[in-house]
Each structure stands twice: as C-alpha cells, then as structure tokens.
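[INFO] parsing input record for Cation:H+ antiporter
[DEBUG] input buffer:
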Amino acid sequence: MKQLFLEFILMAIFIIISGTYLSKFGDIIADKSGLGQAFIGGILIAMATSLPELVTSISSALVGAPDIAVGNAFGSNTFNLVILAFADLLQGKGPLLLRVNYSHILSGLVGVLLSALVVFSLILSHFMNFNLSIFGVGVDSITLLITYIISVRMIYRYDQKNPLDPDDPVKEEDPNPDYTLNKALMGFAICAVVIVFSGYRLTITADQISTLTGIDQSFIGSIMVAAATSLPELVATISAVKIGAYNMAVGNVFGSNIFNMTVIFFADLFYRQGVLLQDAKIVHILTATVGIVMATIILIGLFYRSRRSFMWMGWDAIAAATVYFAGVYLLFQLGLNVI
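[DEBUG] output buffer:
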C-alpha cells in the first residue's frame, strides 16, 4: 500500500513539473507564432495545462475505470475554480475579480453549459436508460465536442472584437530570446510525452488504491487524481497573478474548465466496455453541481464587482471555496458508502 501511494505521489510530481514547463513552452509558442493574449490564456495555455487531465482520463478509460475518467474531469473543474480563491488571497487587498474584464463571463458561462449537458446526460442514462451511441461513442459525448468547437470559435471571435484593456500587461519585448519556435515545440513535445507516461501510471495506481482501500473510484477520481492533474493550472495561474496578468490567470481557469469537458468525449472514444456516461456512477452529478454552483458564484462576482472583502479576499472567492470544501466532504461520505 505504501509503495502505491509513493508511486502516486511520484507520478503527480512528474505531472506538476512537466505541466509547468508545458505551460511555459505553450506561452513561448504563442508569442513566437504571433497569437494574441486572449488566445494564450483562454485556449492555448488552457489546453496545455489540461493535457494531464486528458491523458489521465483516456488512460482510465483504457483500463476500464469510467468513474476515475469522469470524476477527473469534473473534479479538475472544481479544483480549478478554487484556485481562483487562492489567487485572490495572493494578489493583495481587494477582490481579484475587480481587476479582470467582463469578457470572461462568456467563457465561464460556456463552462457551465458544458457541465450542465453532462449532468443532463447522466440523468438520461441512469433514469431513462438512454445510451444511444455512434461507433461505440455516446451521442452525448459527441454533442459535447461539437458544442466545445462552436463555443471556442465564438469566444475567439468575441475576443478579437473586444480585446483586453490596454492597461493589461502586454509583452512588448521578447521575454524568451534564448528560445526559438522549433526549440519551444521540441520542449512542448518532450513534456507531453512525460505527461502521457505519468498520467497512465497515475491512473493505474489510483485504480489499485481504490481497490485496496475500498474507497469509491468516484472520490479517487474527483479529488485525488483531479488535484494532481490540476496542479499545472495552479502553477500557471499563480505565475500569471504574480506578474499582474490577471486576465490571463482567470482566462486560463475558465479555458481549462471548458476543455476538461471535452476530455469526456476522448475518454468515451477509448472506452470499449460500453458508453462512458452510461457506466459512470450517478454520484458524479454531485461533483458537477458543486462546480456549477462555484462557477455561478464567481460569475456573479465578476458581474456585480463588489469591493467588499474579508482577509484580503472577495466574498465571492470565499463563498466558492466554502462550496468546494463542503462538496469534498459530501463526496468523501458518499465514496465510503457507494459500492
């Protein structure tokens, strides 16, 4: 048992380090290729830091662990949102959301929409026996992917028409003169390979821990695996806050949450025992609902823009963090009882 936990921690460390450098190389690639800041934070960096979730969920599907695959996607979303609360604490006095643009409301709402679609699919699958599939992939998973593609295009076009405020930090000089585009691409690829291997081993180890401890896969996937695979988002968000790139920090979180929902499609694609959401437990609705409530609180805070704070944190961040820890407790209690 001790060896399993040590391997889990080691693989998590590999993912943290590789995910951090993956984010860095993704930023360099975006700079060298001339892409804008909105695309960097909301799309490219978000996809880069979400690669651990993608690899881990696919690996879970391959070994026949649907609850780890789905729990990882939803758990990562909730963990990402609580990162904003931590970032609010670090950035200094006053709420973090006062410092970012209204445009993030769009990407936040898209994340809520995708999560709600999965909740709706889980309800249909478990209560109405709806499991329509095409070539073994659920229609609900295909719908998620199509909605994601349409939404990303819409977000990109909106950001082009409504660029970030000119007082946001903009990279006027090349911050990475020692890196060429090809060198950054090579580093990105190496980090991706390390993440693929670590994510696969992390999944197998998590499945074995679940079997030996009797703790449900839903809890393992939604808390342990999700926290491990979301650490690159934590590092990237904190790094952005430290340099005052608040829009990039929030864009990274919302963008990652959008991409994490497409992870379910790719996991379903590699899941051969049936339809992924049909075989996943209904308990994932709890994790999804916690994420939706947290996102809604943050979006209300972003729209309302209250200046009130407590211990340097905005009340929206405090409320979101409270919902997260309450959800973890409830999920743990369910995980001990769900067979």
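[INFO] The CA atoms of residues 95 and 314 lie 4 Å apart.
[INFO] shutting down worker
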